[in-house]
Amino acid sequence: MGRAFHLARFELRRYLAHRSDLAFGIALPVVLFSLMMVALGSDATFRGVMHVADLDGGFLANRILERVEHAGGVAVRRYTQDEFADALERTAISTGFVIPPGFSASVESGAPASIIVKSRGSGSDEGRFVTGIVQGALRAAASEIELRRVAGALAGESANDARLDEAVQRALAGAPTRPPVVVVTESMRVREASQLDRLLAGIVVMFLLFSGTLGARALIEERRTGTLERLMTTRLSAGELFVGKLLAGIGRMVLQSFVLLGLAFAVLGMAGPVVFLQCLVLAIVVAAAVTAIGLVIAAVARTEEQAAFSAVVLTMFMSVFGGTFLPTSGTGWLDVLARFTLNKYATDAFVALFGEAATLADQGAELVILGAVAILGLAAARKMFRVSSSAV
Q1: How far apart are CA 357 and CA 98, in angstroms?
Q2: Which pLDDT band, with edges at 50, 70 and 90, does 169 fall under?
Q3: Which CATH code for domain 48-187?
C-alpha cells in the first residue's frame, strides 16, 4: 500500500506543477466567489419586505403597517392566512408576521395583545432587520395608545401640571411589565441558510464536481498513451494503482477546499476553527464520492472527448437540479430530481456547518449517502477499470 501513497504523492506534485490545473481548481473559484461577494455587497442601501398576514384589519393594525412602510426601505406584502402558511412551508419567505384577529380591539380595550413572528430557524438577516423596524413601529403605536389613555383620564378636568404628571405616571406604571403591544417570535426550527452561506457551499461543491469528474479525462489519456501499462511493469499492482489514483483525486480536491474555505473563513469570519475542521472532514467525504464518480466515467468512456462530455453534462445536471445555489426543498419535481444528485446532500451539509445550525455529527443522513456513493462507485469503477486501451 506504500506504493499507492507514493503514486498519490507524485500525482499531487504533478498537479501543483501544472499551472492551468491550479488556475481552474483554485484560482478560478476564489475569483468567482470574490466577484459574487462584490456584486452582493455593492448596494449598501437596505431594502426589505415585511411579509404579513393581517387577520385583524383594524385601525391599529393598519396604523402599524403604515408606520413600517413610512420607515423607509421596507415594503409591506400582505397575505391571506393560507397563502402565508404556504409561503413559509415552501421556504418562499424565512420571516413573516401574523396580526391575529381582534388585535386592534384588544389593545384599545386595554388588554395586552401581540404580533406573532414566524421564522424558519433563526430567520434571515433581512428578517431580523425588518423585525427591528416592526418593533419600532409597535413602540410608537404603544406610545400613542398611552397618550390617548392619559387624555381620557384628564377628560373634563383641568389639565394642570400636577394632574398631568399624575395621569401620565398612572398610565405608564404598568408599561414595563404589561406593555399594550408586544412581538412574539415563534421559530419553526428549520435550518435556513443565509445567501452567502449557500453561495460559498455551492461554489465549493460545484468545483469539486468539476475537478473530480474531469479527472477522468486525464486517466483515459494515460491509458491511451500507455502510461498506465508502463506503470504496471513496475512492482505496482492494479489495486495499488487504483488506490493511488483515488487518493490523488481526494488530495487535489481537499487542497482546493482548504484554500477556498480558508480564505472564506479568514475574510468573512464565518465561524471558528472547529467548524473549519468539520468542513474539511466533510470535504474529504465529498471528494471521495466525486472521485469515485470520476473513476466510473474513466472506466466507461472510450475516448477523452466522451469522458469530458460526460463529466460536464453530469456536473451541470447536478449543479442545476441539486439546489446548489437555491434551495429546492418542497418545490415539487425539482425536489425529486435533487435527491438524485450529490449536490443536494453536500451543499445542505456545508450550509448547516457554515451557519452553525448543526455539527458534523448531525449530518448523519448526508454523510451516509455520500459515503455510500463513494463505496458503490469505487466498487463499480474497480470492477470495470482497465489499464490497457485495448481491453476497453
Answers
A1: 25
A2: low
A3: 3.40.1710
